[in-house]
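Tutorial, part two.
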Amino acid sequence: MTSLTRSLTKFGLPVLAILAGAAVALAPLGVSAQPPAAPAGGRGPAAPHGPHEFMDATVKDPPGALPDPSRIILLLPNQIKWTGNKALVYGDPTKAGDPYGVIVKLAPGQFSTPHSLANDRWVYVVSGTLWVSGSNAAASYPVKADNFLTNVAKTTFVDGNRAGATEPTVLMITGVGSPDNRIMSDYSTMTTVKASDPAGAAPNTASMTITPVSLTGNQNLYGGGQGAAGTQTEGTPYGVIQTWTPGRYSSPHYHPHPRYIYVLSGTWWATSSSLHDTRLTYPIPAGSFVQDLPKGIHWDGNRLGDPQTTRLYISGVAPASNVAVDEDGKERTQGAPRD
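Running the prediction step on this input gives:
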């Protein structure tokens, strides 16, 4: 036994503990046995998700990697495939029972022809003005951006963008397919009715409902929303608006069914990693379309310092429950992911 060891033992001090402490004190900077804890002021949940948790990345920090396409399919605005003024982003509108989603961009003067559908159709006005009627363009009524419409099944409707409008009308249309659905060949007629001409009366609510959508908070648009498993009928379509204020995030999770997300405004920061570290998030701009694949691990939100609230239009079929995962991507037995 060395003189140093005899001295330490004499004072009752654990030799190994002191030597280990000295080794840590002398270790080179930047080397440690585990990742550093998140700094004070972190915006993660009260109970840390894991040793890698870090919630303070800002928009000025480098972005993370592109999400794994086996978990998240990302289409940036310039990657979306258009057929004329429409982009079919999921499903088949003509296939009975098949949920579908179509982005529509109507130039001034482009209108549909009067028609009806076997199933309800849901329309979100992303930008511009949608003119709607139960008969013709001259009788159409203006519906501004950030309003949500339901075209009631088996009732006649016509809609479009009047001539002379100063901007295109962008719509996110979702529904359940039926053989009588001709959306992919519609909106091809032109009207001479001008935006400055008198507006028609508001449509009869028995055939069409119009609901304003708040620019803050989350809002169920149709179906049961993103309820937990057991609260919705399997396969029921839903549509919701979700918002993320700067610094707010979900935690790693997956869904049992695919979810479809259209980024309405702001930048959406998302990742397919199972580590809860906001430095891993990737910026997805407005106008992008994303599909969360079944059991595809992901989480998302809005980085600190972003000047805008992120707004998303999310659709899918029930159940839309979140299944929380740990840092190894395994289902967590306790706790649930936020949002």
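Residues 22 and 38 are 25 Å apart (CA to CA). In part three we will examine how such features are distributed along the chain.
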